[in-house]
Q: What sequence folds into this?
């Protein structure tokens, strides 16, 4: 996971450098690089959530299971 994080950071850094060069010269489209940077970041976050989902999703479900009785008592149902 750490390696993937490093690779994603390097890719984003390269795209930021390319975007700054595209701003200084009128060759490339800086909006394209901004969209690519956002896509890489979102894809990386989704990948981390998907791979750690076996840890995160059961914890969220457990919190809901524990908190639901307190919520119903609070509401008065």
A:
């Amino acid at each position: 996971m750490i390696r993937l994080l490093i690779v994603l950071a390097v890719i984003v850094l390269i795209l930021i450098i390319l975007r700054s060069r595209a701003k200084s010269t009128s060759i490339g489209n800086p909006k394209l690089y901004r969209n690519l940077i956002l896509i890489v970041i979102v894809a990386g976050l989704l990948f981390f959530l998907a791979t750690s989902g076996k840890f995160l999703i059961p914890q969220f479900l457990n919190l809901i299971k524990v908190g639901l009785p307190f919520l119903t008592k609070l509401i008065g149902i």
